[in-house]
């Protein structure tokens, strides 16, 4: 599948690996949030143009902070946190207690004493799903190659933290399609 990726899309995947391999976010598995972080770092691509057109260019740090906060909550979306609160489960209290006992980032897997890991970085199920969806998005738009814009569109289609954070910042599939393809590109790939 990667032979169909443009240079920009390949750079997003490489950037996601860089986040996992130690830049900011830690872990050993590439997740959709890492793909989003790599997209935020891009400049001069269709995906970065779309994000800037939707006003996210100057709010990148806000997105990064929202992703960090979700990671601290063990990857739960705000909607999941709210649903648990409705059941009487205070996720923030649980996070505080776990971090008090085991250190900051314990639920996120960001603890610095995890030097035992010697395996290769791999794609998590969510990241694989996003990359597969990016192919379907490209095909639905009748594009021959998968660009970083297709990865961005796929992130908005997959329920989870990345889609929620993007939506909270005004970036939805429909808005992106309008910016990237005009009013005629409404094909949706699920």
TrEMBL record:
Residues covered by the Clp R domain: 2-186
rRNA-binding recorded as keyword: no
GO BP, one annotated term: proteolysis
Pfam families noted in UniProt: Clp_N (PF02861)
Key words, A-Z: ATP-binding, Hydrolase, Nucleotide-binding, Protease, Repeat
SUPFAM superfamilies: Double Clp-N motif
One Gene Ontology term of the molecular function aspect: ATP binding
InterPro entries: Clp_N_dom_sf, Clp_R_N
Keyword Plastid annotated: no
Name of the protein: ATP-dependent Clp protease ATP-binding subunit ClpA
Source organism of this protein record: Streptomyces collinus
